[in-house]
Queue: 2 jobs
Job 1
Amino acid sequence: MTQYVEQSIIEHIDKFPKYKSHYYRAQTDRMYLPPDMTLSKMYDLYLSDASSDESRKTVSFASYKRIFCTKFNIQRKKPQKDTCNKCDLLAVKIRDTTSQETKLNLEKERQQHHKEAEDARAMKKQEIALAKTYDHIETLTFDMEKTLPMPRIPTNVVFYKRQLWLYNCDVHPGKTGKGFCYVWVEGKAGTGAQEVGSTLRKHISLNLDSKVKELILWLDSCGSQDRNIKLTLLLFVVL
């Protein structure tokens, strides 16, 4: 492969908008492509752009992939689910340790952690059942959902553009199980404690039955969004 062709691949990959992970922003410099972008699609777009350049038309998918993997710290899609930091940390420690005693202790710690998680799920299920049984109790489960790129149009031009992100805070009342989606776009607001608090306040003011005297909240304990002093102070105001 000539230096000209290699540089053309690098410049092509650089055209695509890249994003930091919402979950691992402080832990890694890795960037992510939009969720619907694949390496195969990028390669096809490269060949399409190179239709009048014979030297670029001969580039194989393997060569394009090699440049992508060796010259960039990019993952082809963002993580689709929240992962538990403690689970991830324990898995790495168990994998890397050479001491059987240490591995055994780590396995016990992981089992205990999983038990605590199962206990929490069981407690949430019980409290949702309470909300369905008693008029004066309500349970709200809420979280920021996956961000979505806008607009969703199948034209090649959009792949090279920095799309607008749509944010969605989802609230699920235990009594009905009916979900409420509160959406906004980046530029109007972010995804921090203020925005999550505003969403919760709006839902409580518009949808919480006046009979409710006890409100139980379930959340993912993300410090920047819901497990913080701002949300605590908000609850003192609205409840």
Job 2
Amino acid sequence: KVPGTNFYTDAKKLKMKKMLKGGKATYDRSGKIIKEAQFQSRLAPGTQVRIEPNRRWFENTRVIQQKDLTAFRDAMATQLKDPNTFLLHRNKLPMALLTDPANAPRMHILDTNPFGDTFGPKAQRKRPQLHVESLNELKTESDKKVDDYAFDKDAGALANADHSGMGNGARDFIFGAGQSRRIWGELYKVIDSSDVIIHVLDARDPEGTRCRNVEKYLKKECSHKHLIFLLNKCDLIPTKVLVS
């Protein structure tokens, strides 16, 4: 029960009354303000607390040398290969910094488009070739293509069409339950506070019940944690299929 509610005033009416009465200054009998109104403080300028000017506020807070980072990377790689070793307290250093930069993905733009072939007098870039000379002709040609389009003759659309007989109608809320952002947040809280994660898979469809996002997150950000796959409902499938 909310304090202040009774037979005549429920919680909603009480909240409305507090909103109408609130936001004003509180006075005593002599008319002095004993509590300022919201956002209307009468403190004189300069009486508030100020931060001491110091150049340390603009410097790096946590720095690490390259040799220390290399030593930590080598030690981490050694411990990851040991299945009997567990890292209970993770360092404050981001685990993404421990990835080998040589194995990091990079864009091979210069391999496909060299600088000399793209800019300068030896540039080989092709300009776009348009078969129209004005925007009106482009609009007319686009409208003609739309009018001549036939869905029955589109092989790509027919290949991706849904032949199950189910239409693209409204989807019930129950089919999306358990997939909200709050549920995902709770899941990642459990992952961050655990050292060993057990991933339960359905033996009838192991690949369909795997959560690739969690596996990718563990591999990239929590490589020191251990992931165990557990097959459930093994009695519902043949033994030969289970062994294979």
